Amino acid sequence: MGSRKSTRNGSVTVELLAHGDVKPDVLTSHAALGCYQATPPEMGKLINIKNKLFYTGHHTTLQHWYATFLIEGIAVGDITFGMHEASPFYNSDQRSGRYCSAMFADPDFAALEHYIREFWPEVGDAQVAGIMTYIRGAIEQYTGNLEAATALSKKHLIIERPKLPLPSVEANCAKIAQEQMRMFIPIIFPTGFDFTVNLSALVSLWASAWNPTMRAVTDLMRDLVLERFPEIAFMFAPELRVADADDPDGLPVGFVGECLVKPEYRLEHLVVGKRVVEPDPKDMHPIDLLHFKPKYMDNIRTTVTAEITLSCATMGQDQRHRTIERSKPAFVGFAYLPPLLAELGLGEKLRETMKRWAEISRVVPKSLATILAPYGAMVRYHKHGNLNALAHEMAKRCCWLAQEEIYHLGTQMREQVLRLHPELHWVFAPPCVKDGGCGEGQRYCGVVIQTFDFSERKV
What is the domain class of 264-338+378-451 according to CATH? Predict the structure, then answer.
């Protein structure tokens, strides 16, 4: 496609990568007419979408048309607490803070300041200067301890994953060190992602955009679509946008506690249905069929509700499972101290970073305070899922290639659920435990599968 637009001062760029081949009004009309005719409607015949479908709330017909955008330069926090936070109706692939060392290796501090000034022009020079001092201090902690964390990571990889070849140890130790050391880094750092939505999801995301960055980015998405299809401009009428702020709870931060060395999972409610169908492993990997085969439909009657406390870094990972329902997140005043940081004695340094962020959160808009939170700042929310959704999630999160923190959340859930219902053991097993084969192929974690026992790990 190639069409690209940037926000007013160029901080964020949005490109329209792909869209449905048929015009949205034509495709929507075809879908609507097909509901009421005995024969397939003529492609190209139009109905009054505005009055007969859009303003009457019949929006399923809009969902046949899609668009894929490349969004570059947006803050990590404006994805976690923005584009990905509430709606599950999207597909997204984001540049990883676990794998891409260049995200933090050579920070563009001028660009970070530019981002703040573009989206929060009401923040004064003295406040911006204080924010930049905070960001630079966090980066100093990250870079100053990364080499030692990498050495520790290598040591523990060799101990914990004895079958991992040395080249893989070398390749993974730096990645894992970065993954854990980033707990110091504010989530204002820029990233990029491919983002696909259908037409009604795009309209709803634009209408509900609750912070300055989301409003600017969804405006660009709207503009790129309307350049090609001006006939649907009525869907983006200004009066349809709800401008209410809807920031995370727990701001400003009034309390900073001791760092936590584990995430927290608290089982609140477990309902086991009359009929539970244990899946054939072949129905879960490599293609997950649990939501598609009728024989597994009764599994939705078994549900788990829990309260979890985890870092902003891991919240971003947790959001990838969109068949799980989540409540609104709240900052709780704690930071997550991963095993490598704990072993390096960095707990007090991380807490100092949290205190500085807490001070800033009291004098800047909540939407800005949100993305100035360190990756390690912990949030709390509730999760609810049925057995099919949880089986898919746990097959990924109980694997040793999963991020350390989210793995420990998974094993805590496993322990608490199986204490009450041990017959559900199959829900909490990666493919290797079920059939002896690694689901990750060449990315095999290096753990001895025959002795896999969901034990604690440092890397």
Answer: alpha beta
